[in-house]
Structure formats: C-alpha cells, structure tokens
UniProtKB/TrEMBL annotation:
<dbReference type="InterPro" id="IPR006652">
    <property type="entry name" value="Kelch_1"/>
</dbReference>
<dbReference type="InterPro" id="IPR015915">
    <property type="entry name" value="Kelch-typ_b-propeller"/>
</dbReference>
<dbReference type="Pfam" id="PF01344">
    <property type="entry name" value="Kelch_1"/>
</dbReference>
<dbReference type="Pfam" id="PF07707">
    <property type="entry name" value="BACK"/>
</dbReference>
<keyword id="KW-0880">Kelch repeat</keyword>
<feature type="domain" description="BACK">
    <location>
        <begin position="11"/>
        <end position="116"/>
    </location>
</feature>
<keyword id="KW-0677">Repeat</keyword>
<dbReference type="Pfam" id="PF24681">
    <property type="entry name" value="Kelch_KLHDC2_KLHL20_DRC7"/>
</dbReference>
<protein>
    <recommendedName>
        <fullName>BACK domain-containing protein</fullName>
    </recommendedName>
</protein>
<dbReference type="InterPro" id="IPR011705">
    <property type="entry name" value="BACK"/>
</dbReference>
C-alpha cells in the first residue's frame, strides 16, 4: 500500500508538471522531477500525460543510466506506445529513440518476434539494420565473454533503483563487520565495509529514512540492547537510543515509520517481549508481548500487520506464527506452518507471507511455504536449491533473495532467488565472504546509490547477457 501511495504521488507530480508547463522544450524536468520519473517509469508510462512528452524529453529519459526498469523490453514498448499515439508526426524519431534502448539486454527471440516484426520497424531500413546487427552481436558477444560492457553500449546494464545490503554475521568462527551491497542489475556484490565498526552477529537490520539500523545482536561475549545507525552517505556508524532489553537472535521489521524489535535472547531467557523505535524522538517504547517466547524467529510486514513465524522457545523449534495489529496493540495467533522452523527467513512477497528454510530440530530445510492472510492457510511452494538456516532474506526487483547462512555442514556464501511467476529458484552471484547469522535490508532513493553499484566498465558481457536471459525467463 505504501509503495502504491508513492507511485501515485509521483504520477500526480508528473501530471502537474506537464499541465503547468505544456510548452517547455527539453530540460522540462528539474533534477527532482527527473529522478521521480526515472524511479517510477513503469507507472508513468501508463498515464495519458506520458504520450504528450516532447521527443527531447523522451530521449533524455530513455538514455538515463538510472532508468528504473526490470526488463529492457519495457523501454522499447514505451517508445512504440509514444510513437503510435501520433504515428505520422513521430515515426521519423524511431531511429534516434531506438538507439537509446539497450537492445543487447533483450533476448534474440524477443527481438525477432516483437521488434523486427513490428510495422514501425519493418518500414524503417535503418532500424531493421540496427536490430539485425544487435541479434548478430548478441550471438557474437556470447563467444567473447571477457569483453567489457563499456565497449558495447547496447548491452550496458542500467543502474538499479534499489540495493540489497548484507550486513555483519558470523564468519570463520567469529563475528564480522563486513557489509556487501548487491547490484541486482549486474548480479555482483560490492564491499562497502566500514572497518571502524565493531563486528556483530545475531542482530536485526532495517532501512528507514535513508539510514540502516543495526538492532541488538551478539559479538561473542555480550548480548546487546544497543542500536547502531549507518549513514549511507558517509558510511559512518553512530549509536542511537538503546532498547529496553538485550536482544540477540532478534526479529526486526519496519511499519509506518517505526522500527519493531520482537523477541530474541537476552543471554538468559528467550523473550516474548517486543518494542518499537520512533526515530523522530529517538525513543524505544514497549508494546504488547507476543503469545510465544521466540528467538531465532523472523518477521515481516504485510497489509499493516507484523507477522512473526517460527523460532526457538528454549525447548523446541516452533511451528507457530502470529501477527501484531498496531492499531489495537494486540497479537493474534494464525494457523501453524507445515514445518517447525528455527533460523527461519520470513518475508512479504506476492501478497503472501513466505516462510523459508530453517532448522526443524533434526534437519536443515530447503522447503518454503506461503501464508495467505485471506484464507489463513499455508501452502508449500518450490523448495530452495540449498538447505539453509540463519540467512538473510529480502525482496528486490520482484524477486525473493536468500543470502548466506548455514547449510547443515558449513557456513555458505551462496545466494539464490525465487520468483512467484515460475515458482522456481535460480542461482545468483555468491557473496565475497561466507557467513551465517547475518541480516539483510533493501535501500533505495539515495543520491549516492552509484557508490553501492558494480562499475559497468568492468562488467564482462557474458555475465550481462546471462543475467538478461535469466531475468526474461523469471519475469
């Protein structure tokens, strides 16, 4: 709901901008408006006002490195929609606009079946030549894997709108302070560690108002109630107000501008207590306790509720789950999961609550299941490629990622993602370090987002093409 509100806000600003400035030439967009349009391009394209852009404005948008599109086919379909609105006057711009599309990021099948066969392209010899050359280049580039994307602009990935951060955890028998940023458009990890920060594991991470918060945790000696805030611009850590309780193995999520810390282990007992942080007041406040004591659980937010699933109560791995309603300050039990799961990953995805992996008391799990809040039922989905517990989990680019963890034999660095459209898991690029008991969060809207992305000039085209094909298959 919050994401839709943001889209609506930006679309209304887009409409207002065009309404108030219908005759402005190229350069219409202020930096802020351009950023909003780039970030919400797929939504903006659906609006009537998109069709009234000038060719200069559309060219500038399509040429942007930070244009937020999951598939390059969206860019092609947007430009053909714009031309088809007034075809007689606009078809003369097809060649110039098509040159701004990263044709090398499309599949050969799409180029043949949808681009070459379109009436607009068939009537334009320059475009026919451009597409034909792109198809040949895609085939040729596959046999020259070490050529950089710098040398072929048609296959240069655009910058991501959001970045997945993997923070801290346990590696090599001790806690780590490593921070790695995952660039989903390049399928690469970038190390952005601040070595001045103390190592920490078994904590929770949250992104709120441009900062990353590290909540609670354990360093091998002490269980923390302290909370650290990471400035993504300066990469400096600062301490904010501490929680009421020490909490390692804590579950953390964000709802309506608050950070919630649920359950955990204080060094003596597993906790049922919960609290929330208001950054404007730098204040933690206790909320109603959960029905269960839960450490090593995981939580997420869906439809203005906080769901927490599984965990350990001190005696057994839990199968139970419950949700919190902030309006009534009450917890309600829901149907239990199909499996007991401690060290679980829980995330809202595709309008369901997904419960993934973990440890059931005997085995490390590959299985995953999804909760439908409308029917109060859990249904199994396709299992992960690798069993794992105590891993990071997040959703980015409409894909559910699981990161690192313990696979039953060793700590791992491997990463995979799930897409609901195919109900399958796919391999992604491994992290640079192996670690378990880490936490992940997704950050967006940063002015310095490029500092967290992989340099395009050093990205082998073989990887670019492979990623483009996998994205097309899973979307």
């Amino acid at each position: 709901a919050a994401k839709n509100e943001v889209h609506i806000k930006y679309v209304l600003q887009f409409k207002l901008l065009l309404t108030n400035s219908p005759s402005l030439p190229s350069g219409l967009f202020s930096p802020t408006a351009a950023t909003q349009t780039n970030s919400n391009f797929e939504q903006v394209v659906l609006e009537e006002e998109f069709l009234h852009l000038t060719v200069e404005e559309l060219t500038d948008i399509l040429d942007r490195e930070d244009l937020n599109v999951q598939l390059e086919t969206t860019v092609y379909e947007a430009l053909t929609k714009w031309i088809s609105h007034v075809p007689v006057q606009r078809k003369q711009h097809l060649t110039a606009l098509l040159s701004k599309v990263r044709l090398g990021l499309m599949t050969s099948d799409y180029l043949k079946d949808h681009v070459l066969s379109s009436e607009l392209v068939e009537a334009n010899s320059e475009c026919l030549s451009m597409i034909s050359n792109a198809i040949l280049d895609i085939h040729d580039l596959g046999s020259r894997p070490f050529i950089s994307a710098l040398y072929h602009p048609l296959a240069r990935p655009r910058l991501p709108h959001s970045i997945l951060l993997a923070i801290g955890g346990w590696s090599g028998g001790e806690p780590t302070n490593d921070i790695e940023a995952y660039d989903c458009r390049a399928n690469r990890w970038v190390n952005v560690t601040n070595n001045l920060e103390c190592p920490r594991a078994y904590y929770g991470a949250a992104f709120l108002n441009g900062y990353v918060y590290s909540v609670g945790g354990f360093d091998g000696v002490e269980h923390f109630n302290s909370v650290r805030r990471f400035d993504l611009t300066t990469r400096a850590w600062n301490e904010v107000a501490p929680m009421h309780s020490r909490r390692s193995y804590v579950s953390v999520t964000v709802l309506n501008g608050f950070i919630y810390a649920l359950g955990g282990y204080d060094g003596h007992v597993r906790l049922s207590s919960a609290e929330r942080y208001q950054p404007e007041l730098n204040l933690w406040s206790l909320i109603a306790p959960m029905h269960e004591q839960r450490s090593d659980a995981s939580c997420t937010t869906l439809n203005n509720r906080i769901y927490i699933c599984g965990g350990l109560n001190g005696n057994e791995c839990l199968q139970t789950a419950e949700y919190y309603n902030p309006e009534s300050n009450q917890w309600t039990m829901i149907s239990p999961m199909n499996s007991r799961r401690s060290g679980i990953g829980v995330i809202a995805y595709a309008d369901h609550v997904f419960a993934v992996g973990g440890f059931d008391g005997n085995n490390y799990l590959r299985t995953a299941e999804a909760y439908n809040p409308h029917t109060n039922t859990w249904n199994l989905v396709f299992s992960m490629l690798t069993p794992r517990s105590n891993f990071g989990i997040e959703v980015i680019d409409e894909r559910l990622f699981v990161v690192g963890g313990f696979n039953g034999f060793t700590t791992t660095s491997d990463v995979e993602y799930y897409t609901a459209l195919t109900n399958e898991w796919y391999e992604a690029c491994d992290m640079d370090i192996f670690r378990t008991d880490l936490s992940c969060c997704v950050m967006s809207g940063l002015s310095n987002l490029t500092e967290y992305t992989f340099p395009r000039d050093f990205l082998p085209l073989e990887d670019v093409l492979k990623l483009a094909m996998e994205s097309a298959e899973s979307t």
